[in-house]
Amino acid sequence: MKIAVDQVYENPTRFTGEEPSGILELSDDPTLHLTGGLRYDIEAEAIPGELIVRGTLAISVDFHCSRCGGIFSQEVREPGFEVVLAYTDEHALVDLTDEMRETMILAFPAYPVCRTECRGLCDQCGVNRNEATCKCRPPADSRWGVLDRLDMRK
Q1: Residue 24: how many CA atoms within 13 Å on its side-chain side?
Q2: Strands 38-47 and 13-19: what pairing?
Q3: What is the pLDDT of residues 97-106, one digit of tens each?
Q4: Beta-sheet strands, E only, within the chain
Q5: What does R_g of the chain's alpha carbons equal in angstroms?
Q6: Nearest-5° angle of CA 97, CA 98, CA 99?
Q7: Residue 103: inside a domain, yes or no?
Q8: ∠ CA(76), CA(79), CA(84), 5° rounding?
């Protein structure tokens, strides 16, 4: 998205719309699928030497759950998008693409989960514990095994 400085100079202007999801450059990421464009609702104002932009960004994403591996949809929103960019020419076009991309990628969850009570996969047989139960028992805790074998009588 580009904003003309002379259009917003000392005159706050609101912009709403949608940019293609391709600006996030995540088409090769196997853990997610962007299902819509990057929506924005921002206000921009230029003062001498600086363009100030504030607003909200949002995009719909299909994630792979980090616990069970299932696919789920979630809207990722960043209500606190704010950037101040320097400019030297009052007739310049300032490109916000890099700042929008970085802000949205940082807003993505590090470990997306389909729901807070997701039980994940059994680490022994691989069954999805949200859909079925397994008869696997948790492995024995052997962290103290070496200490248990110590003979303290010597």
Answers
A1: 28
A2: antiparallel
A3: 999 999 999 9
A4: 2-4, 13-19, 32-34, 38-47, 50-64, 71-86, 93-95
A5: 25
A6: 95
A7: yes
A8: 120
Domain limits at 141? 2-148
Is 27 a member of any domain? yes
153 within some domain: no
Tokens standing for residue 62: 């299909």
Q: Which pair of tokens denotes residue 19?
A: 């940019």
**CA-to-CA dists, residue 145 to 124, 139, 148, 150, angstroms:** 21, 13, 5, 9
Number of domains in the chain: 1
Whether the model clears a pTM of 0.70, i.e. scores above it, the answer is yes
CA gap 90, 149 in Å, rounded: 78
Q: What distance in Å separates the CA atoms of residue 13 and residue 48, rounded to the nearest whole number?
A: 16
Distance of alpha carbon 96 from the chain centroid: 18
The verdict on residue 154 lying in a domain is no
Q: Pick from 115, 141, 139, 140: which is nearest to 128 by CA?
A: 115
Tens of pLDDT, residues 55-64: 999 999 999 9
Give dist(CA 77, CA 68) in Å, integer.
24
**Which residue's structure tokens are 């609702």?**
41
